[in-house]
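Q: Sequence in, structure out?
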Amino acid sequence: MQTKRMTFPGRWLPYALLAPQVIVTLIFFIWPAGQALYQSLLREDAFGLSSTFVGLDNFRRLLGDPLYLNSLSVTTVFAVGTTALSMGVALLLAVTVNRLLRSRNLYTTLLVWPYAIAPAIAGVLWWFIFHPTIGILPYVLEMLGYRWNHRTSSVDAMILVIFAAAWKQIAYNFLFFLAGLQSIPQSLIEAAAIDGAGPVKRFWSIVFPLLAPTTFFLMVVNVVYAMFDTFGVIHATTQGGPAQATNILVYKVYADGFVGMNLGSSAAQSVILMIIVIALTVVQFRFIERRVNY
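A: Exactly. Output:
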């Protein structure tokens, strides 16, 4: 059997087709990353009029700063909570919708809508819902004996930002889980049912292992989302408070660089954040992916 080889009429046509993507990557990714790396080695005044080369001094200061170490631990709690909640709820919804026959498309459409909302808007919505004075949930919680106030309680503030960030990401996870469930051969589930396996056992022994590739992919995406794309949620709800309780790394980069005008430290923080995300992604693909069956 002969295979046909694709040939281009011009020698430069493949390069011309690749050029737009390469240019976008260079302008919006490579160049800003290089600028941040270079600026992290400098100490600049608040107006950017003068700069002094300090080498790795910005990084040494950060690693010895209690506020930065606190932000690192806060980011860990926030990322784990957001990833676990968004993926858990999305999987539950996907399993429920997949069992429906007639109204599956309707429920899918309704559950996807929140993904179109910007993170800042999602933060504002949950800020109103959890507002201690006008929010409906604090009113219900007070009837149950719990007085909610995310402006003074660090635990309440962390719960608020995790709920807001996870709600924004549930729709994305739901789509992939539903697609993964629909790709599982129904004959395997029917054979397990004939052998006497109940719904719970069929899910954990057949369905969930076959969803391992989808789960692994979503875990990587959700960790990156919690690290980078939740700035709008934090800014619209708690602004890093109270008492640095929700000041995650990406928000601290903004607070130190654009509010505190400490540009060198802010650039060093962005470099460390980029290294952390790359390291987590490598660890996930290097070690966790080995247990994934495709």
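The chain has 13 helices and two strands.
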